[in-house]
Amino acid sequence: VLAIELLCAFQGLHYIKPKPGKGVAAAYRSVSRWVKPLTRDRALADDIERLRMKILTPSFAACAGLLK
Fold first, then answer.
1. Is the terminal CB of the chain with fewer CB neighbours within 10 Å at N or C?
2. Neighbouring residues of 35: CB distance < 8 A, sequence distance ≥ 6
3. Which of 58, 48, 45, 65 is nearest to 2 (CA)?
4. What are the phi and psi torsion angles at 30 (to 5°)?
């Protein structure tokens, strides 16, 4: 569920192009290294799985402020 929400947020930021805060901008840059924006209809299973695997890493938790 978190991977899907992260993917949705990434896509929304890509299309709306607001000026995000520093933390959101950093997260956007990270996600953009792992998945590409939707430019046409395609299956998202691979993107979701890639994000799921990244979310499970200690480095992702550390950058998200989840590890003390």
1. C
2. 7, 10, 47, 50, 51
3. 48
4. -65, -50
